[in-house]
Amino acid sequence: MTTQVSASEPDFTPLDDVFVRKHLGVPDIDVTDWTLVVEGLVERPLRLDMDAVLALGTERLPAFHECFGSPFAPDVPTRAVAQVEWAGVPLAVLLDRAVPLAEARHVWFEGADTGSFQGQDGLTYVKDLPLSVARGDVFLAHRMNGEPLRAEHGFPLRAVVPRMFGTNSVKWLTRIVLADRRADGVFTTQFYNRVLPGDSAPSPVREVDVSSKLFVPGEGDELPAGVAELSGRAWSTTEIVGVDVSVDGGAWEAAEVEAPGSGPTWQRFSLMRELAPGPHRIRCRARDLAGRVQPLDGARNSVHEVGVEVGLNRRTG
Ligand SMILES: Nc1nc2c(c(=O)[nH]1)N[C@H]1C(S)=C(S)[C@@H](COP(=O)(O)O)O[C@H]1N2
Ligand SMILES: [Mo]
């Protein structure tokens, strides 16, 4: 049995600690020259400057944000995860104005960054999603944790696709195309495809895996002897229903897990546990509502493990 403690306000990762990923470099964008185009299979193509984007209204979206890691090492965990409060406008608001034609099936998102990756030149960062998914989920963000987007995070506007790996959240967004087929750039066809468990053919890297990460203590921490709080965050495409913690390969013990929030936020977990002096290995393993459990090893969402050293002195105060 897992105890669920009620959900509290979401916690956000300080911007200086949010990971940064870029395949083609950071474009230098002057917002006064910047526009976003919505075109292709639409009744009314749009071209918006930032004032026009802001005039659509601003909503907030607290969401966890996870990088898949190297597309060449799909089974290696990166544990690059953060939680951010995005501010911006749902893509659906723009789609309602542009009015997709009946033949439109896919939405392509193109960034302003161009360059070389893996020995191929002249590349653009383009990702795509089925129109039904894009209409429901995609958010266009111009602020992050209350600040305008920083250059490296996609200034002045980026896509955010909650509960999908970061690779789908195109930064420096300049063009949205409605199409009747998938985009054929290398970041959709060649990179970021993987064979999911039970499948024989690769599919695009989209929905996140069930996962968890120990935040406290961290790798190599020295702790006083006595009862320690072992805590972290867990997330998936659906709610997390349990997180178990194991010390030194012993039995899995149920941590307290915070109830899910209303949106795509991670859930905190914590276990109070007596630790004797000496070295210890602590692992955590999350389980979601769909019955998915983190594998013990060999997968990118394998259970997270940290090593700590407990001293002879007991905690005081
Ligand atoms: N235009 C563009 N968007 C991009 C990328 C990129 O290289 N170019 N990298 C993607 C990847 S792999 C991730 S994990 C996220 C990272 O977002 P962040 O750097 O703001 O944390 O951006 C995604 N969006
Ligand atoms: Mo990524």
TrEMBL record:
Family annotation (InterPro entries): Ig_E-set, Mopterin_OxRdtase_euk, OxRdtase_Mopterin-bd_dom, OxRdtase_Mopterin-bd_sf
Highest taxon, organism lineage: Bacteria
Residue ranges constituting the Oxidoreductase molybdopterin-binding domain according to the UniProt record: 23-185
Gene3D superfamilies from the UniProt entry: 2.60.40.650, Oxidoreductase, molybdopterin-binding domain
PANTHER family: SULFITE OXIDASE, MITOCHONDRIAL, SULFITE REDUCTASE
Protein name in UniProt: Oxidoreductase molybdopterin-binding domain-containing protein
